[in-house]
């Protein structure tokens, strides 16, 4: 139980620190930073998959599935935003 409590504490602190860091970034920088950090998001996804593989109890399984789901949404969203941003710079065909 103490091990789960320490992991939950780290998780809550990571969410808080992540929110504080992202909220301080100006809106104009969100898209370029998203495209630059897709590799980091992929590492987070791999870490979530590793944690899911060693989960023991039902609560740990639920938290691991939530971590994998959120990391996947983060990676896919990053690629979609990057693709949309790059579409803005393409020349439109002459009609």
Task: Write structural notes for this entry.
The longest helix has 31 residues, at 58-88. Helices cover 80% and strands 0% of the residues. The chain has helices at 2-23, 30-36, 38-53, 58-88. The protein is mainly α and 95 residues long. It has a domain at 34-87.
Task: Summarize it.
By secondary structure, the chain is mostly helical. Helix content is 80%, strand content 0%. It has 4 helices and no strands.
Task: Give me the secondary-structure topology.
Elements: H1 2-23, H2 30-36, H3 38-53, H4 58-88
Helix pairs in contact: 2-4, 3-4
Notable traits:
4 helices, 95 residues, mainly alpha, elongated
Helix tally equals 4
Q: How many distinct beta strands?
A: 0
Percent of sequence in beta strands: under 5%
Q: Assign an overall shape.
A: elongated
> How many strands, what sense, and barrel or not for the largest sheet?
none
Topology order in helix (H) and strand (E) letters: HHHH
**Which residue ranges are poorly predicted, with pLDDT under 50 across at least 5 consecutive positions?**
none
Output the structural class: mainly alpha
